[in-house]
Write a structure and sequence with these properties.
heterodimer; A: 314 residues; B: 308 residues; mainly alpha; 11 helices; 71% helix; 5% strand
């Protein structure tokens, strides 16, 4: 099989498996998987910046929350329907990503991490500051009636799963197309050696900015979709934890692989789900996993697979 | 109260804050300066200091002064040992790679925080101050054309708060003396200046790294012990000091000790005064954005000379 056919078979296979899951999974796992697919979309967008471009951002919650809040607020206070609200969510997140990218990309390395962290922190505090509209920590619930997209009621569990799958499939296709295109190769070149890439005549600043902006708009779409599908918008989604989690998922699944973010999100979700039966300190698992990963498997699950078995994995 | 006495009060509270902040930030700055890594778990060492101070004062019992004195000595040592262990088991093995260290210390942050939650619980606990005399402060007013002293209501501080300011200043002088006057300090500065050359001259760089990480954590823990009679010990109390310490270190110039101290005093003092005019959340938003912009446009800080 050619590489192209293998790539399509593997990724298409996963989507087919997820579609089959819709019909056979018990209700609890069905619900979990819908959530995982939306979060994996978020993780995939993070992977474009971190895994492919090599920029360690600690502030992606800003984009996720920008999508979620601009969707939620326009439904709640401007009375928009789900479709336009979703669009606004993506657009605002894209704008926020481009704006913060222009500033943050002037720095590199450790300074970049701290700047993104601080931008996200400022975003989180802004959500709290405008508590009259956002209801701060408490957050707000999006009414069932507003969660209808094109005649489909997204609060229904079966529709919700299929909508999450559609979002996930679209993001995965976009991601695959991006990393296999020449532009994706440029991003990988920047990750491996930015000075040399610049010397070869590529405008690395522009490429990085485009990567951050694309990543931001997918993050925003995931955030807006999360709000619509699960009907809740809250400040915790803007907090530091939601900037760290995609990093964790991507590292676990394998940075710089298209499937990695999904695998990582799936693993981590169930790890935390199982451990929350035993202890309330479930973030302990996240901490231990992060440390173990940096020590023993910086490549993650799919990264190890690529190294040992499937060298063609995109 | 009039503005004058009010400003004096704000300055005093700010000085307490500045003293604790300077200790925390100098620890962070020392680690960054010598080891060139950013320790995200630094705030958790501060929290551990406060929590362990509570644990020790509970264990020792007796008059509060004795328990507190024991905590003041034992807690920084304990936290320092924990940090050295973390350095040898984790940071050394990722070879102090800046990005992997950040990820590993984020992991460490959650491990310390959640273990504290499991062992200590979600409640905040107070620690009694060893001495806490209330001191009213006089203010001058013009009465019948003659200056006279009077004691405005509410203008007071406690002896403990003054002691914290003094202790902070004393420890900072100690750190400076260690860096500038002792052999250990000389070795640290040598490693900071040129790691390879220090290694070539037979300096055990890895042991120096472990020691610096331990001292940095111990300073944060000491700040935690000093603050706990004023606030309370809580397992989530590490987040704010971490961000503030970052702010201080960035404004002071990454890795510059005098800059860090000046910035801590600046921020500690202005914090009290700014929050008079703005809501605390808005003040925090503005401060955070200001610091981010600082990193973008002037990464060497106000006092530093080196780029990041």
């Amino acid at each position: 099989m050619s590489v192209r056919a293998r790539v399509i078979a593997l990724h298409g296979g996963l989507l087919a498996l997820l579609l089959a899951g819709h019909f056979v999974l018990p209700a609890y796992h069905h619900g979990n998987l819908a959530r995982i697919m939306v979060l994996a979309t978020y993780a995939m967008s993070y992977n474009i910046v971190f895994g492919y471009t090599g920029l360690l951002s600690l502030g992606h919650a800003l984009f996720f929350a920008a999508g979620m809040y601009s969707m939620g607020l326009s439904v709640q206070h401007m009375g928009l329907t789900a479709g336009p609200a979703l669009l606004i969510g993506v657009l605002v997140a894209t704008a926020v990503a481009a704006g913060s990218g222009i500033l943050a990309l002037r720095t590199r390395g450790v300074a970049f991490m701290i700047v993104t962290l601080m931008f996200a922190q400022a975003g989180y505090l802004t959500v709290l500051y405008f508590g009259d509209w956002t209801r701060g920590d408490e957050g707000f619930v999006i009414a069932r009636g507003a969660r209808v997209l094109g005649g489909i009621d997204l609060s229904d569990e079966s529709n919700r799963y299929l909508a999450a799958l559609a979002l996930f499939a679209a993001a995965m296709a976009a991601c695959l197309a991006l990393v296999r295109a020449p532009f994706g190769r440029t991003l990988v070149a920047i990750r491996e050696n930015e000075a040399r890439t610049r010397m070869l005549g590529y405008d690395t600043f522009r490429a990085k900015l485009v990567a951050v902006t694309i990543s931001g708009s997918i993050s925003g779409a995931a955030g807006a979709a999360y709000g619509l599908l699960f009907g809740y918008v809250g400040a915790s989604f803007a907090g530091v934890e939601y900037s760290i989690l995609p990093l964790l998922w991507v590292l676990l699944g394998g940075a710089g692989t298209v499937l990695g973010p999904f695998i990582g999100t799936l693993f981590m979700f169930y790890l935390i789900d199982l451990s929350s039966d035993i202890t309330t300190a479930y973030m302990l698992i996240a901490g231990v996993t992060l440390v173990l990963l940096t020590l023993f498997a910086p490549q993650g699950i799919m990264g190890e697979l690529r190294r040992r078995l499937w060298r063609w994995l995109p | 109260m009039e503005l004058g006495p009010y400003l004096v009060l704000a300055t005093l509270e700010g000085a307490v804050m500045a003293s604790v902040l300077a200790l925390t930030a100098v620890g962070l700055s020392l680690v960054f300066g010598v080891m060139r890594v950013v320790n995200i778990a630094h705030g958790e060492f501060f929290m551990l200091g406060a929590v362990l101070a509570w644990v020790i004062t509970q264990m020792v019992g007796g008059p509060p002064a004795i328990g507190f004195a024991v905590a003041l000595v034992a807690v920084p040592l304990m936290v320092g040992v924990i940090a050295v262990a973390a350095d040898m088991t984790i940071l050394k093995r990722v070879d102090y790679d800046p990005e992997r260290t950040i990820v590993a210390t984020i992991g460490l942050l959650y491990i310390i925080q959640q273990l504290t939650l499991m062992g200590y619980g979600p409640d905040a606990h107070p620690v009694e101050a060893p001495f806490n005399t209330r001191l009213a402060l006089p203010w001058i007013e013009i009465k019948d054309g003659m200056p006279a002293l009077y004691w405005p209501w509410g203008l007071s501080t406690t002896s403990y708060k003054l002691a914290v300011i003094g202790a902070g200043a004393a420890v900072l002088c100690g750190v400076w003396a260690m860096m500038a006057r002792t052999r250990i300090g000389l070795v640290m500065r040598a490693v900071q200046a040129d790691r390879e050359m220090a290694l070539a001259f037979g300096i055990p760089v890895e042991r120096v790294y472990a020691m610096v990480f331990g001292i940095g954590a111990a300073l944060a823990a000491l700040a935690g012990v000093l603050i706990v009679p004023i606030t309370q010990a809580h397992y989530l109390m590490g987040a704010d000091p971490l961000l503030l310490a970052f702010t201080v270190v960035i404004i002071g110039g990454l890795g510059s000790l005098p800059g860090t101290v000046v910035a801590a005093i600046l921020i500690g003092l202005s914090d009290g005064i700014i929050s008079v005019f703005f809501s605390p959340t808005l003040a925090k938003i503005l401060a955070t954005l200001l610091v981010a912009m600082m990193l973008v446009f002037r990464p060497q800080g106000l006092f530093g000379t080196r780029a990041v």
